[in-house]
Sequence to fold (269 residues):
Amino acid sequence: MLSLIPTPIGNIGDISLRAIELLSEADILLCEDTRVTKKLIHILKERYNTSFKENQEFISLHSHNEQAFVEKLEPSFFEQNIVYASDAGMPGVSDPGQALVSYCIEHSLEYDVLPGANAVLTAFVASGFGQTQLLFFGFLDHKGNSRSAGLQKALHNGYTTILYESPHRLEKLLQELAQEAPQREIFLAKELTKRYQKFFRGTPKELIEQVGKNIKGEWVVVISASQTQSESAISEKDILALDLPKKVQAKLINKITGENIKEIYQRLL
Fold:
């Protein structure tokens, strides 16, 4: 069968007993990066005195070859103990793994997914925004209209929204947030579960000052929810298509989204 195993996102102690057991009994380990998985297994052997099956096979399976790999699979491949492990966190969440699950479902093959370390939920709880609903957007597109459209969806959907961001684009994202939603409460989690884990919370401009040049590492960005969007049949796009002054458009958009009128007006400008 196939087992998808979440791996620690920083602190090795977060690995589960079930994950160790399945890793040790695997015939074949599909790895986002074989070097990372081999290093994890080496640590488990040294620190927890874990015994692993001899002659385990390691196969690289990452975002660039996942689809081609799955297309060549035969159901008989899963007659062995197959484990998929991403570099860190939950497989299938901004990491490969979903294509393998789909293959198993399509061919009526047995599979299992272990619960475990996950940066999205960890940051969501740590933000303290008091919501029970969230949207996860992963990484926004790097530039262009698709990035602008993605940011607007992240800001104005009525839910706490979580993004991943790389260190060399974090400052750009904060500047965009400062322009689009200057009063919105934002939470930043840096290097979750690692030695230098840090949390930051405030408006975008406050965060720019707090973070400063200390941007190295992996970041999770939690955007507090805008006011709940109504179920109106009229969309913002419909309003913008009308030949109306921007102040009037801003007031109408406020009626269907609950967003602050001044923020809407500045965005339209």
Remarks:
- Residues 237 and 253 are 9 Å apart (CA to CA).
